[in-house]
Amino acid sequence: MKVATSKWTILIANILVPISILVFSSGFFPYKTLLPGFATHEHISNGQIPPGVFDKVVFMVVDALRSDFVYSQHSGFIFTQSLIRSGAALPFTAYASAPTVTMPRLKAITTGSVPSFLDVILNIAEADTSSTLMHQDTWLAQLKAKGGKLVMYGDDTWLKLFPGMFRRADGTTSFFVSDFTEVDNNVTRHIPNELLQDDWSAFIMHYLGLDHIGHKAGPNSPYMITKQHEMDSVVSMVYTALEQEKHLETTLFVLCGDHGMNDAGNHGGSSVGETSPALLFISPKFQQLETRKDSPTEEFSDLQYYHTVEQTDITPTLAGLLGLPIPLNSLGVFIPELLAMWDYGPHRIHMLLENSKQLLEAVKGSFPSYSFEFNLMPAICSSQSLTDIERVQCAWFRVHEILNGSVVDYDSEASSDIESALLLFLRSAQRLMSSAASDYKLIRLYVGLSVAGFAISLTIFPVKRLLVNFTPAGMFLGFSILGYSTMMFASSYVEEEQQYWYWITMGWVIYLHVKYAGYFQGNSIHKSSPVEGYWSSVLSLPRFGAAALAVSYRVLRRWNQTGQKFAAQPDITGSFFPSHQHTLWALVILTYADTCVHLLLDLPASVLWCFISCVVTLAAFLFKLSLTASDSPELLGNSFLQPVAMVSDGMHLLYHARIVLCGIFLLMIYSLYAGKAHESTHKDRGTPSTIFHETLTLFLLMQSRVTNIPAFLIFRVQITILASMRLSTVEQTITSLLMQYVTFYAFGGSNAISSVDLSNAYNGIGTYSVVIVGALTFISNWAAPIWWVSASRLLRSSQNQEEKEAHVTILTLHMATMLMSVMAACTTLRTHLFIWTVFSPKYLYTMAWAIINHIVVNVLGEIDWRFFMER
Amino acid sequence: MSSTPPSPSLAQGPAPPKSAPPIHVLPNNISKTYALIHPVLLLALVALRFDALVTDPVAELLSNLPFLALLQVTFVMTCLPPAGSAKDDDDNNKSTSANSTSNSTSNAGSGVILKPGKIGLRRKNTPKSDSGNLSAKLLPAILSLTLTTLLATPVLTILLILFGAPLTTHHAETLLCAAHMAVLTSTALIYVHGVDGSIWKEVWGAKRPADAVWGAALGTCVGAWFGAVPIPLDWDRPWQAFPITILIGAYIGYSVGFGLGRTVLFGKRLKIEEEGDVVDSKKVD
């Protein structure tokens, strides 16, 4: 196989990849047109402004408070449920649209607008301050403009969104996911004091503990119910104060979740669990409405308890109840149940009318070409098929008609007519505005696409011979790339991408089987070539190697269920290990021992080396043990390691992690220094191994979830089998590629933002730093692909320069094609319903695959750094 | 096993080991006609029972299995030479004595293992018994069906699970799906090849030259592989449940492989050489 290529082609193609990503991203991630300025009451004739029912608000956000956490029979919110029964609390399910992560949701709650997808990235790159809501119209800004003071305790996202807005504040960072108690105690300790103060108009609390429990242990963990009881006691404390304190008599208490969580305890996507947080308006005053509801209610599988409203509805409702103008960019609809707070009919109508006029302005802002003047009542309204904007127009004309027709006497019948017409308009306008296509800069999308296309064309010519001549491996590669590219246009295949890799990899195993098993059988007479050393013991491996590979893939496939459709089904990490803790820990110990033995074998001569590597391995294992003991103790349970964990628990996790990292770093340095001389003598052992690879393994073990650690044993078996097969260059590359993707998904990765695993992103870090946390997050999510890049590099250690270049060229071609197909899918499907929930996250993942996994890990990893060091 | 990793030089070197030639459909009119009808019949069976299959896969697969077996037995008896007689039909012009020796030498294995004492098999070796003797064909047919049930079904079950069929649930579905695939693939293979070890090694290594029998068997497996493709789609149709698409794929694959194996690809082998040597498939004869 000759891949005629040059360093320059590879270099240029790999520079083009990030350029195309940059250009495409700048056109793809849109910004919404926002109306500048702040709303005022001016445009309403004064007499009819509905007076505020409340003048203060206690706004309590419980992160990831899914509706069933409050409303179901298994809830810990006993007191809150008694409030619902008494009518003092009005319960709702608030639909939170994707992206269901905290910052965009807070924007939705405070501004009433639907946030752009860009906010997800900004949510992760938390340090960013460009996305503040300082200059946007929010109910907080309105309160402040009215002269109110605001206080805030809890998630410091609020402080970043509203710098300088709060009189008193104490922020807690939301990124130390393993902390269940401190984050919340830090909020609760301020409550008694604040409830005694009468200077604030808004008292905001944001509890993070429940979300952290979800991320760490899932919605069914034993911690969850305890945490719910704790939150319930906070509700009880506040409600008691509302009843008893004179200055809190006209205070509204809002309890809500910013988003929900899925069955794995994660969020970010658009599954029903993630989009269904609870929302309660609580005040002793509501009892007079006599809207008593049953509570707890029976379980709903779709989590839509009581009446479902939009999360953005919170904004106009709050504004209305507090007597504030509705923020300009709000897309919310005043929640009709709460209209009953005004006994006087015209107040209710004016509330809705004000809401309608505000929303109409927002609609006009986005659709300047449509007229809402009454004089041209169009005939289209009678037609059956209306576009969304036409439906809004017609609803508005209908409102106009009724308003003009009825004299302003607002008798009960006319007023209910007007109310329903207004609500119809509000709902249709809300639907229109929430789904309004964002502004794409199409030119940039096409430029990004063509740059990616150019990168493909650069790399495809060298590989052309391979593909055009129909070598089976080349055909397989072509088939795989084509299949993948086609798949990117179907949302379910994007969600279930792992299925594709499992499927195509089994095809590859059959290829290897046909090639190698058959080969040996056919040529068994011609076994004259030298049989050296180790090979005699693994001679049977190629024969049954493919079968063994197939079995190992089958195990990996069930290691973690991922994707959307089958995510909740039982798997090894989620169902088997928690109930077989001894097996888990025996395997984990075996993995560490195996790594240690490899370390020792790589440099057997030195006693010092043996000692150091044993100590570092032991320390790394103990770190994992105590991390598990503190994060997910249910995995430790009553296993035999419980006593060990108790002992090692004495050391602070932070320092423990740093010690292990230092140890691993030392080993790496030493391996670079001393390993060079030894490496050549160990070529012929079965499993390829160098000190660098082994220390890297140790590091990757540290960054992997404990349940994923035993999978590294399977990788060892696989790499041994693959080594015995002596694959050709193209086959090596294909195997490396397939293994990277298969293991990424087998470790629980997917194309959903919610599957990003943050549990190991803070190992050894004391303060938040975007770069380090980002790097650790990448490493812990891509641990298995990184291992395979390193391992397959060892497999290919005998390759010459030309073959290495061929390897990189094929990798680059593969990456560029993937990138281009994802970009093409995002471009053509930019008006698709799932663009923000499926395709954009996929694009983000592809960015990580392309820029970090491909360029940094694969391509830069290919460069022989020792070559530079010798210079 | 004592063999060495292949070096590229070996690739071109030795001639491939002597293997049985591809199988022709019997050269009489009834056989040729039925060989055309048979795949259509199978597809019709699936199409006809599709709704029932979706409603209750297990019951339907179970009740269809006898029909499928019957169709396959009819097919092999009508259209294919039973094990050991393949050579007769292949080299028709050779003398009968040469024919019998060739049977007793190169194909001895099959004769011996397939119950050598049986009169039916002995008689089958007599020349020109092509379509007449029913029992000479019924016995191998039933034997092959038995072996299919006993050996091929478990093997295919394991393969299905390796390819991702559920391990802890859907046991009946997996087993029945494997049984259907086994009847599709193995009945004819065993009928024409017996249990000749070297041929089965070729089958295991996917190295058989293409003919109707091998093409259909390979087609069934490849079809089943492609049958898995629609499962992850979020259409939430009842037919996306586990064994259905795979089975449909298998049946379609069977028909396609059957047709291609008889005609376009006849005699070609799936061959994966060292890279550079551009040999996808090559003529054997």
UniProtKB/TrEMBL annotation, chain A:
Taken from the UniProt entry, a GO cellular component term is:
endoplasmic reticulum membrane
Q: Which SUPFAM superfamilies match?
A: Alkaline phosphatase-like
The record ties this protein, via CDD domains, to: GPI_EPT_2
Domain GPI ethanolamine phosphate transferase 2 C-terminal residues, every copy: 437-862
Q: In which pathway does it act?
A: Glycolipid biosynthesis; glycosylphosphatidylinositol-anchor biosynthesis
Stated membrane topology is:
Multi-pass membrane protein
Tell me where the transmembrane regions lie. Answer: 12-31, 443-463, 475-494, 500-522, 608-627, 653-673, 734-753, 765-789, 810-831, 843-861
Keyword RNA-binding assigned to the entry: answer is no
Q: What are the UniProt keywords, alphabetically?
A: Endoplasmic reticulum, Glycoprotein, GPI-anchor biosynthesis, Membrane, Transferase, Transmembrane, Transmembrane helix
One annotated GO biological process: GPI anchor biosynthetic process
**Coarse class of the protein's main subcellular location:** endoplasmic reticulum
Please give the InterPro entries that the UniProt record associates with this protein.
Alkaline_phosphatase_core_sf, Phosphodiest/P_Trfase, PIG-G_N, PIGG/GPI7, PIGG/GPI7_C
Classification via Gene3D superfamilies = Alkaline Phosphatase, subunit A
Where in or outside the cell? Answer: Endoplasmic reticulum membrane
The terms under GO molecular function for this entry are:
CP2 mannose-ethanolamine phosphotransferase activity
Family label = Belongs to the PIGG/PIGN/PIGO family. PIGG subfamily.
Role noted for this protein? Ethanolamine phosphate transferase involved in glycosylphosphatidylinositol-anchor biosynthesis. Transfers ethanolamine phosphate to the GPI second mannose.
- Protein name in the entry: GPI ethanolamine phosphate transferase 2
Species per Swiss-Prot/TrEMBL record: Aspergillus caelatus
TrEMBL record, chain B:
Q: List the Pfam families hit by this protein, alphabetically.
A: PIG-F
Region annotation Disordered: where it falls in the sequence: 1-20, 84-114
Q: Where is the composition biased (Low complexity)?
A: 94-111
Cellular compartment(s): Endoplasmic reticulum membrane
Q: A Gene Ontology biological process annotation?
A: GPI anchor biosynthetic process
Q: GO CC annotations?
A: endoplasmic reticulum membrane
* Bilayer disposition of the protein: Multi-pass membrane protein
- Top-rank taxon of the source lineage equals Eukaryota
- Membrane spanning segments where? 138-165, 171-192, 212-233, 239-261
The record's keywords, sorted A to Z, are:
Endoplasmic reticulum, GPI-anchor biosynthesis, Membrane, Transmembrane, Transmembrane helix
Pathway in which the depicted protein is active? Glycolipid biosynthesis; glycosylphosphatidylinositol-anchor biosynthesis
Can you say what this protein is called?
A: GPI biosynthesis protein family Pig-F-domain-containing protein
